[in-house]
Amino acid sequence: MTMRRRDLAELLLLASLWGASFLFMRMGAAQFGPLPLAWVRVTGAVLVLLPVLALNGETAALKAHWRKIALVGITNSALPFALFAYALLTITGSLAAVFNAATPLFGAVIAWGWLKNRLDAPRVAGLVIGFAGVFWLAWDKASFKGDPDSVKATLAVGASLLAALSYGFSANYTKKHTGDVPPMALATGSQISAAVVLAVPALWSWPATMPSAAPWLAAVALAVLCTGIAYILYFRLIANAGAANALSVTFLVPVFAVIWGALFLAEVPTHTMLASCAVILFGTALTTGLIGPRTTGAKSTTAAPAK
After folding, report:
1. What is the DSSP string of the chain?
2. How far apart are CA 269 and CA 92, in angstroms?
3. At what angle do helices 103-114 and 121-141 cross, to 10 degrees?
4. Distance in angstroms between the alpha carbons of the first and the last residue of the chain
5. What is the CA 299 to chain-centroid distance, rounded?
6. Rounded to whole angstroms, how far apart are CA atoms 269 and 70?
7. Which residues contact 213 (CB under 8 A, 6 or more apart)?
8. Is the torsion defined by CA of 125, 15, 197, 59 positive or negative?
């Protein structure tokens, strides 16, 4: 499908919102803690999405498919949101966003092993190139000296990659099991299930000192802008411009994450980070068929991409 100017504007807005999510997680994680921040995010998103769900008349679908939707909520929201919030206690938002860009690589490997999607030579090359970029960046940022700071950095890198892996699994599960679930029911229900799963751990680890105004504003922005409104934009793009065009947001999110981090947190990306990001994105473009010959081996999914 051809993208209109309005579709392109919405794509850029969506990428800017999901890129900003790393900025807001960085701003809120220290005072909230990873689990409380993730819970506030998904709970606020529920408040945004529930009225839209009701207006679309999809409430019955949520009830009918709640078991499928619940697993999507855990693997596409609760787990990766908490893992990235943990990682951002140590690493920069722009670095986390680059690791996040590896999600399609993990998704392609899972699709090959689980859904038996065929990988032709260009896609195999894309996986090799993309994971080489991931390994390069991880090796550069993780430290194995054994001191507390190096352990924190290594755990943060590991948490980021585990979050990307969770997103990759969720995309494939959604493709295999939720094709009959209306999009807004899936989006809203997944946030509800994530909020339920995170509620007890979040309240148990709630900070003894109430977070100040800036982290609260960051948490609200995460919930309303980067999750609730972003989901609405994403599914509008799928409907108006097609899933393949909507999924191209994956390549724009790291760009905006770097821009927001530089503007508001004075984060300066290193040459290694920029180079490895380019390698990862090139490998991802090959793996997803964005560049190179198109085949039917790896079809797009309408699952929400990493954000």
Report:
1. -PPPHHHHHHHHHHHHHHHHHHHHHHHHHHHH-HHHHHHHHHHHHHHHHHHHHHHTT-HHHHHHTHHHHHHHHIIIIIHHHHHHHHHTTTS-HHHHHHHHTTHHHHHHHHHHHHS-----HHHHHHHHHHHHHHHHHHHHH---S-SHHHHHHHHHHHHHHHHHHHHHHHHHHHHHH-TTS-HHHHHHHHHHHHHHHHHHHHHHT--SSPP-HHHHHHHHHHHIIIIIIHHHHHHHHHHHH-HHHHHTHHHHHHHHHHHHHHHHH-----HHHHHHHHHHHHHHHHHHTSSS---SSS----S----
2. 9
3. 130
4. 23
5. 19
6. 37
7. none
8. negative
**The pTM is what?**
0.91
Record the tokens describing residue 306, joined without a space.
Answer: 């990493």
Please count the other Cβ atoms lying within 10 Å of the Cβ belonging to residue 232.
18
pLDDT at 75 over 60: yes
pLDDT digits (tens, 9 = 90+) for 101-159: 999 999 999 999 998 888 899 999 999 999 999 999 998 887 655 667 778 999 999 99
Give CA–CA dist 161/271, Å, rounded. 21
Answer whether 223's CB lies under 8 Å from 77's CB: no
Q: How deeply is 255 buried, as exposed, middle or buried, from its count of CB atoms within 10 A (0-12, 13-18, 19+)? A: middle
Half-sphere exposure of 107 (CA within 13 A, CB side): 34
Mean pLDDT of 244-249: 74
288 sits in the region (left: phi over 0; alpha: psi -120 to 50; else beta) called alpha
Q: Which two tokens stand for residue 286?
A: 């090959």
C-alpha–C-alpha distance, residues 51 and 58, integer Å: 10
